[in-house]
Amino acid sequence: PDHLNRHKNMENYFQAKKKIYQNQGEKHFLVLNYDNPWTREIEKEKTKPTKIWYSLEKEVRGFCLKDDVLFSTFQNQPLVNKKDILVPGKHNISNVLVATGISALLGVGQRDLIRETRSFKGLPHTMELIGEIHGVRFINDSKGTNPEATVSAIKGLKGPKILISGGQDRGLDLTGLAQAVVNENIKALIITGENQWKIYEAVKSLGYTEIFTVENLQKAVTLAWGKAGKGDWVVFSPGAASWDQYRDFAERGNLFRKLVGELEGGE
Fold first, then answer.
1. Which end of the chain, N or C, is more open, meaning fewer C-beta atoms within 10 Å of its C-beta?
2. What's the mean per-residue pLDDT of the chain?
3. In 3D, which of 186, 143, 145 has the Cα closest to residue 163?
4. C-alpha neighbours within 13 Å on the C-beta side of residue 14
């Protein structure tokens, strides 16, 4: 839905995306996410490339989870263990699954897959663990520019969470985000930015009351720190674009990192 300002609706976007593989041939692979209902529709289509699926929910012809092992059923071989993944979040297990699965298809050996998985600590501004102060862990997910990304972020973290959200108002559907705030152990929702009142209303309509609106990110971080306790996560995942106040998501994420560094003398 990030791109509906261009494509107008999801069906148009889906048809445009499908052009990616129209020039593939019979010796090629088309790797698809089985857990996404849109891409799962391609299962019904006859395609020239061989379809390979990946899924965290079901054993598919491709890449899947078997107990705690990421496994390629296509090649009948293990890839890496789930405990080898250092980046937090369920969606990152899916990311590592497809990355290691494709790498194995290209001939990369298991020893190399394990080594690289263990060494990968994530990308800046994408579920980035930037520090821990007195048992409170801080996640910078400034690249979470739509509600679905924020839902993935908070669903992927176990334990109590304080969510800092809000940004440019692009008229996106906030229903899923509001439901996740209610259901995913969010101790407090702190919102700032152009769409803060839309988020406020969407969440309040479901009976959630621990909502706080603030003028800027500095006040959001200060308030989150005041409400956080040992074992909590403070998650900065705006669920919206940055252009209401910032040049881009990186500038926004760098500010969050700086503000967290200033807490308690920058521990």
1. C
2. 95
3. 186
4. 10
